[in-house]
Design goal:
Blueprint: E1 3-6, E2 9-12, H1 17-22, H2 25-35, E3 44-47, E4 59-62, H3 63-66, H4 70-74, E5 78-86, E6 90-97, E7 109-114, H5 118-121, E8 129-130, E9 132-136
Length: 137
């Protein structure tokens, strides 16, 4: 049975890499194919109270499944993805890079790819709390 877990966290400023990568139309198309919704370019970084434990609802996406040169462009071999609902109204996808030791990428940070520009729609600023509901399988 599917359930929801509230994994609220704090909005954090990103480095802009996610926004640049998500500006690539082919990348958004691939993620839209996986999620079933049209998403805004960019990501929202959310620091969770602790690193997330990956469960059965998490899915792996290899870098080459996004684009043939993706690993070269990003230095990342793949991602773990899980469906989320943000602020109980926006569908999204939380993802984490496979390489936990990536410099500057802490294990308690997730990036959200969402159907809305969350900073604008929710009036979010760095340091604000945001509700992220994870779908459990």
């Amino acid at each position: 049975m599917l359930g929801q877990r509230d994994l609220s966290g704090v909005v954090e400023q990103g480095k802009g890499l996610g926004a640049g990568l998500m500006a690539d139309g082919a990348v958004r198309e691939k993620l839209e194919e996986l999620t079933g919704f049209s998403a805004e370019p960019g990501t929202l970084n959310v620091r969770m109270p602790q690193p997330l434990e990956r469960g059965p609802s998490w899915r792996y996406l290899a870098a080459e499944d996004i684009a043939p040169d993706w690993a070269t462009r990003t230095g990342q071999s793949g991602y773990f993805l899980v469906p989320v609902t943000v602020a109980r109204r926006y569908r999204g996808l939380a993802f984490q890079a496979v390489e936990p030791g990536e410099p500057g990428y802490p294990p308690d940070l997730i990036e959200l790819f969402c159907e809305a520009h969350l900073r604008t729609e929710l009036g979010l600023s760095d340091g604000d709390q945001v509700s992220v509901w994870l779908t459990d399988a």
